[in-house]
Write a structure and sequence with these properties.
Blueprint (H helix, E strand, L loop, with lengths): L6 E6 L3 E9 L2 E9 L3 H13 L6 E6 L28 H9 L3 E5 H12 L7 E7 L3 E7 L2 E2 L33 H5 L1 H8 L11 H21 L3 E5 L8 H13 L10 E3 L7 H11 L2
Parallel strand pairs: 1-4, 4-5, 6-9, 9-10
Antiparallel strand pairs: 1-2, 2-3, 6-7, 7-8
Helix pairs in contact: 1-2, 3-8, 6-7
């Protein structure tokens, strides 16, 4: 790798940090996974791993949030108020920028994954894409014409309020802020709290499959209706449940009823990059830093 630019990437999740170095976003030469503990232990362990690979030229971080992404703010690069114990106001970008002495690209983990899918994955032929992950939480990133969408902050797609069926109102949800928002009803821990097992562990004829598909289809229909995007790539641990993606497609089509003018251009698919979308997205942020 002598003479080649070396990029570093972090997919920073609430459960684990995925670390990678590469000579381009898709040419990963080494990777490593560490558990997410306190900021002091986790950031130091990650930095030591990068330092062992020699001179890093740029770092990209796709992180769990909420995040401060306004580059004009003194709080840029920090994780804002989060339910993850000890991580509120953590200056994650500042820490690595100072310790490694490199420019840092910084965005949400789902925006990073969305950029990777748009550039190298399922959205390579599309002009617009959303990446949705359904796992410990629910989050989404939106890319239109090659740029991740930001506004006053960043999208929080997991915190919309889905319509609840009359026979499906007995569970209050687990979101500590909203209760029965989408994340509170349909993320992995919510499924386990309501039915005592993961979706993949429940029988195929269990009601949970239809209920969760309906909630996720509402998010997909909302995205198509509000933004007219072409493609939604859905990943995360919950989406590994057999048949769930097909159920979401069918439920979204029923919700639409053939109304939206985008028609067949609106597609719901698995991520083309699989589980690598997040870390490739982090390296892409480094490449643009």
């Amino acid at each position: 790798m002598a003479g080649e630019r070396l990029l570093a990437g972090i997919e920073a999740g609430g459960t684990k940090f995925v670390l990678a170095v590469g000579t381009s976003p898709t040419r990963i030469v080494a990777r490593h996974t560490i558990p997410t503990r306190s900021p002091e232990f986790t950031l130091a362990e990650a930095a030591e791993w990068f330092e062992a690979h020699g001179r890093i030229d740029a770092l990209g971080i796709g992180s769990f949030g909420p995040l401060e992404l306004d580059s004009s703010s003194s709080g840029w690069g920090k994780i804002a108020t989060t339910p993850k114990p000890g991580w509120s106001n953590c200056d994650i970008a500042g820490y690595f920028g100072a310790r490694l002495g490199v420019p840092v690209g910084f965005d949400t983990d789902v925006n990073a994954a969305a950029l990777a899918e748009y550039t190298f994955g399922s959205g390579a032929a599309a002009s617009s894409l959303a990446y949705i992950t359904v796992g410990t939480g629910i989050g989404g990133g939106l890319v239109i014409d090659g740029k991740a969408v930001h506004g006053a902050a960043h999208p929080e797609m997991g915190h919309i309020f889905p319509r609840r069926r009359a026979l499906n109102t007995d569970f209050g949800g687990i979101c500590p802020v909203h209760g029965d928002c989408l994340e509170g009803l349909a993320c992995g821990p919510a499924i386990k709290a309501r039915w005592g097992a993961s979706l993949s562990e429940l029988p195929e004829d269990h009601e949970a499959h239809g209920v969760i598909a309906d909630y996720l289809a509402q998010l997909c229909h909302t995205l198509f209706a509000v933004s007219a995007i072409e493609l939604i790539a859905m990943g995360g641990g919950v989406l590994k449940a057999p048949g769930l993606l097909d159920r979401v497609r069918q439920a979204a089509a029923q919700l639409d009823g053939g109304y939206l003018p985008g028609g067949s251009r609106h597609r719901i698919t698995a991520p083309g990059l699989g589980d690598d979308a997040g870390v490739i997205g982090a390296l892409l942020l480094a490449d643009c830093a």
